[in-house]
Amino acid sequence: MDFTFSEEQQAAAEAARGVFAGVAPDAVPSPALTQGRPVADDFDRALWGRLASADLLSLLLDEEYGGAGLDAVALCLVLREAGKVLARVPLLENTAAAAAVQAYGGPELKAELLARAGRGGAVLTVASHGRTGHDAAELAVTARRDGDGGARGQGGEGDWLLDGVQTAVPWAHDADYVLVPARTGDDRSVLAVVAREQEGVVLAEQISTTGERLGELRLESARIPARYVLTAEGAAEWLRQLLATGTCALALGLGDRVLGMTGDYASKREQFGHPIATFQAVAVQAADRYIDLRAMEVTLWQAAWRIASGAPGALPASGDVAVAKIWASEGVRRIVQTAQHLHGGFGADVDYPLHRYHAWAKHLELSLGPAAAHEEALGDLLAAHPLVG
After folding, report:
1. What span, in angstroms and rounded, lies between the C-alpha atoms of 295 and 389?
2. 129 and 210 Cβ atoms separated by less than 8 Å
3. Where would you tag: which of 13, 202, 210, 265 has the fewest CB atoms within 10 A of its CB?
4. Each residue of 180-192: pLDDT tens digit?
5. Angstrom distance (rounded) from CA 251 to CA 245
6. Quick one: pLDDT at residue 31?
């Protein structure tokens, strides 16, 4: 495999660096200072507009929908830059949901949503955490066909009815549509595009460790027209892999920025007349975290490449995604913990930007799930696909 980035992928990363250059993470209040309230009522709409103007919301969309037709690698390059500045926008969710609609939706749904999503006019998010955050998201919602809707005057024949609860839905109160995984009575997974104002949809406020507003999404016999439901086999798994890999990219960008902050601080902070960076104990800890960062990076690109190329391998792409999640969840935690330790008192100061990076790292770690669970999943894959030779 060749991990050299193409000119188009590098151009997307360069455009992202330009857009995110003016974002100041320390300008947003720390969650500890908002006393359980969200740090803001909405995501950063000005930044959202700049991303749309730079064509970074339509990276994965085909040209007919105003997109660049790029792949998961390009998306992860952009998300890495977003993670460095803790960008308060639904970039991952919007892009992943639009890509799923493009890959698995019907012509009518594509024409209705994709161009608007690429321009930033329609905001999409994904309910990916299920009811508890520990089980597959589709197990939290049931979907059943309703053939009587037209007769009752409440909808069309073949509409779907959704019931269930999805927790910790990012940007749910600000998005126009939520892509909801669900399970049918014959044990198939589907993805439903649910309008936020849809009858039968109830949103309750939740607050994340980052101080951002999440939503508990309750579906009470919410009637969804058939054209808004993606029933193709493999759609939910593909979306899950793309979201997980994108989250790893955010963790990589965050870790990269925190390690840089730690290096700058250690080179200026003096003890006993010398910068603490010259002390062996400090240098060894920083070196260990650098190794974590490089491992996070190489496993991320492996997973993104498998998703983008669809290349066959000894294991399904889910194996590469599991490895990337192991390193991202463990690595980002170790990086911020070492940064807090080496910053001393500044690491605990909620007015110092490192505190916000720590909160976001914890949120990403929780979103990815524990490394032990991914190791178990990887073990199951190895057992089911014994490596030959």
Report:
1. 25
2. no
3. 202
4. 999 999 999 999 9
5. 10
6. 82
Residue 370: CB atoms within 10 A of its CB come to 15
Residue 223 and residue 200: Cα distance in Å, rounded?
A: 7
Find how far residue 329's CA is from the centre of its chain.
13
Cα separation, 260 vs 278, in Å, equals 16
- N- to C-terminal Cα distance for the chain? 19
Q: How many CB atoms lie within 10 A of CB 34?
A: 14
- Per CATH, domain 7-123 is 3.30.1490.20: no
In the three-class reduction of DSSP (H, G, I as helix; E, B as strand; rest coil), residue 230 is classed as: strand
Q: What is the DSSP letter of 211?
A: S
Tell me the pairing of strands 201-207 and 141-146: unpaired
The list of the chain residues with pLDDT below 70 reads: 1-2, 148-157, 314, 387-389
User: What is the third-level CATH fold of 126-230?
Assistant: Butyryl-CoA Dehydrogenase, subunit A; domain 2 (2.40.110)
How does DSSP assign 119-144, residue by residue?
Answer: HTSS-EEE--STTTSSS-GGGGEEEE
**CA 30 – CA 34 distance, rounded (Å):** 7
The two most distant CA atoms of the chain are separated, in Å, by 84
Which two tokens mark 155?
């909808």
The pair of three-digit structure tokens given for residue 242, joined into one six-digit string: 């793309």
Superfamily of the domain at 235-384: Butyryl-CoA Dehydrogenase, subunit A, domain 3 (1.20.140.10)
Beta strands in the chain, from DSSP E residues, in sequence order = 124-126, 141-146, 159-170, 177-184, 189-195, 201-207, 213-224, 229-230, 270-271, 274-275
Q: Bridge partners of 220?
A: 163
The string of DSSP codes covering 316-371 is -HHHHHHHHHHHHHHHHHHHHHHHHHHHGGGGG-TTSTHHHHHHHHHHHHHHH--H
Residue 18 identity:
G
3-class DSSP state of 184 = strand
* Tokens (6 digits) for 117: 């999503």
Token digits for 84? Answer: 């460095």
The per-residue pLDDT for 157 is 53
Q: Which pLDDT belongs to residue 387?
A: 66
Q: Residue 35, Cβ neighbours under 10 Å: how many?
A: 6
Q: What is the pLDDT of residues 293-346, one digit of tens each?
A: 999 999 999 999 999 988 777 678 999 999 999 999 999 999 999 999 999 888
CA pair distance 32, 13, nearest whole angstrom? 32
